[in-house]
Amino acid sequence: MPTFEITAASADDIDMLGEWAHAEGWNPGRTDSHAFFAADPRGFLIGRLDGEPVSSVSVVRYGSGHGFLGFYLTRPELRGRGYGIQVWRAGMDRLAGRNVGLDGVVAQQPNYRKSGFLPAWTNMRWVGRPVAGVTTPPGVRLVDGRSLPFDRLAGYDRRFFPAERDSFLAPWISAPRRSALAAVSDGELCGFAVLRPCRTASRIGPLHAASPGVAAALVSALAATAPDAEIAIDVPDINPPAVRLAEQLGLTPSFETARMYTGPVPDVDHTGLFGITSLELG
Questions:
Q1: In this structure, are residues 231 and 258 in contact, taking their beta carbons and an 8 Å threshold?
Q2: Residue 185: beta bridge partners?
Q3: Cα distances (Å, whole numbers) of residue 3 to 6, 20, 49, 83, 190
Q4: Buried b vs exposed e over 29-50: b needs ≥16 C-beta within 10 Å?
């Protein structure tokens, strides 16, 4: 009989999960694994059949009460045999007692509901080349985010995420071939965004901003660092001005997920959330 076991993933395994996600059309970042593994080294589980990876889930712990689930995948030729649900159960056990979030593709949302997840909002991925001519609002300066003290960026990010995530955010900003911009007004942060290279369109996330004008300036400036590539932003419909901004920038909707939680929707600044960071880690 084949032997099935569940183990913690290695750093190399997380690179493999990026390829699995690419095959599903999720367009993961080329260097996302740098930050993923740092966020929670024991938070990625692999189901192995006779030693070969066949299924996965990420179950990253943030702080004392939050968790995020992603990378729920089984190799296509082995689906329907229980290898996925076994890693799911192991992952949910690891997050027991926490309010767990995930970004679920449409086809899987009924299954997530059965497991106790309820929808909070819809994310729509908007893709394209932003329209030209966007200007930075008066009194706002855009600076390299990595030139600022990290604790300022982490404190600002905390307004838009349910828990502290410094161990994830630091490598997310500094991973190779990325651009990070901060918007500053009167000495205070009023926006922050990161662009990363992906298999197809380069993705912007997070995209935090005090106003649509600041968000538009960040998108335009980041897109200028990759002039020959399309950009993509996963925009939450819980912030209607963010959706309108994506339309005004000339982007096209392409891919839908739902943010879902096992508990109450976290109390974060949704009005400043113009683009989520990652479908896999929140």
A1: no
A2: 140, 188
A3: 10, 22, 6, 11, 53
A4: bbbbbbbbbbbbeebbbbbbbe
pLDDT in tens, 38-67: 999 999 999 999 999 999 999 999 999 999
Give the distance, in angstroms, between the CA of residue 199 and the centroid of all CA atoms in the same chain. 15
The two beta strands, 231-236 and 118-128, are antiparallel
Give dist(CA 13, CA 1) in Å, integer. Answer: 25
pTM value is: 0.95
3-state SS record for 104-164: EEHHHHHHHHHCCCEEEEEEEEEEECCCCCCCCCCCEEEEEHHHCCHHHHHHHHHHHCCCC
pLDDT at 26: 87
Residue ranges in the chain modelled with pLDDT below 70: none
d(Cα 121, Cα 236) in Å, to the nearest integer?
7
CA 254 to chain centre: 16
Cβ atoms of residues 221 and 135 within 8 Å: no
Pairing relationship of beta strands 52-62 and 44-49 according to DSSP bridges: antiparallel
The answer to whether 48 touches 5, Cβ cutoff 8 Å, is yes
Residue 55 phi, psi (nearest 5): -150, 165
What is the per-residue pLDDT across 98-121, written as a single tens digit (0 to 9) for each? 999 999 999 999 999 999 999 999
